[in-house]
Amino acid sequence: MEPTGADGAERPGAGKRMCIVGASGKLGRYMVQHALDRGYEVVGVCREQSVHKLAAFEGRITVVPGATDSDAVVARAVHGCDAVLTVLVPWGVHHYASGTAQAVLDHARPGARLVFSCGWHITRDGEDVYSRRFTAYAAVLGRLAKLARVVDVDDQVEACRRVFASATRWTVVRGSDLEEGDGQGLPVWSRHVGDPVLESSLTRRVDYARFMVEAVEDDALVREAPAIVGRLTPSALAYARTDADGPA
Ligand SMILES: NC(=O)c1ccc[n+]([C@@H]2O[C@H](COP(=O)([O-])OP(=O)(O)OC[C@H]3O[C@@H](n4cnc5c(N)ncnc54)[C@H](OP(=O)(O)O)[C@@H]3O)[C@@H](O)[C@H]2O)c1
């Protein structure tokens, strides 16, 4: 991995190792690309049947196949990593999300930067203000999915509760609705859903991934749960601060 980019500047990930848990998903693959672009050595964890989805990165990353909630798999993958990015997904009814979060919390090196993905429905301090539409949609969808034993949103809530309670250097990035498309730049963020800057509720997936990767290098995001929105959305353009980084 070249320590400098095309412009000769040192890349932020040079000499550092990043593990991406859930690397084969849509968000995961974007994160792998951003991490490589920033000079990180990348270790990706994904289910055995999904290894083929990482073929485009063959020879450039190390893949550890296996269930992302497996202690042994995660322990092996995060060994020696400076940062661990985790896609938290509430699949099934066997505590997949909380198992994944716990394995990362247990096995990541002390002091490592840990960044987790989830949706706006996760609240850290109960101060988020949700629209009636959002609340109704989340409740109905959550209940139906649990009944069908496909998804258990409560387990993603439990996963995040464990992360918030941990003494690690965590960031939980709460995504809005997502869309595909070219990158528009680093999303803007707020501590609370309900902030007008987030009103558009839409982020390009590639930009969500960028926020996850760049959060590793931003100490202002340690122990924060930023809710993000695309920086070119109408609400971001209308309400975002124009000065430095930080909550909009
Ligand atoms: N989709 C949205 O609109 C949205 C909105 C806000 C926030 N988010 C957050 O963004 C993150 C990524 O979500 P995404 O929708 O974009 O999905 P994604 O990136 O495609 O990721 C889905 C992940 O779930 C895994 N997965 C799929 N089926 C599974 C199963 N049956 N058992 C175990 N793992 C399974 C996939 O692994 P394989 O590659 O092995 O299938 C992949 O790692 C999540 O943290 C989500 O909460 C999503």
TrEMBL record:
<feature type="domain" description="NAD(P)-binding">
    <location>
        <begin position="22"/>
        <end position="218"/>
    </location>
</feature>
<dbReference type="GO" id="GO:0004074">
    <property type="term" value="F:biliverdin reductase [NAD(P)H] activity"/>
</dbReference>
<dbReference type="InterPro" id="IPR036291">
    <property type="entry name" value="NAD(P)-bd_dom_sf"/>
</dbReference>
<protein>
    <submittedName>
        <fullName>Short-chain dehydrogenase</fullName>
    </submittedName>
</protein>
<dbReference type="GO" id="GO:0042602">
    <property type="term" value="F:riboflavin reductase (NADPH) activity"/>
</dbReference>
<dbReference type="InterPro" id="IPR051606">
    <property type="entry name" value="Polyketide_Oxido-like"/>
</dbReference>
<dbReference type="Pfam" id="PF13460">
    <property type="entry name" value="NAD_binding_10"/>
</dbReference>
<dbReference type="InterPro" id="IPR016040">
    <property type="entry name" value="NAD(P)-bd_dom"/>
</dbReference>
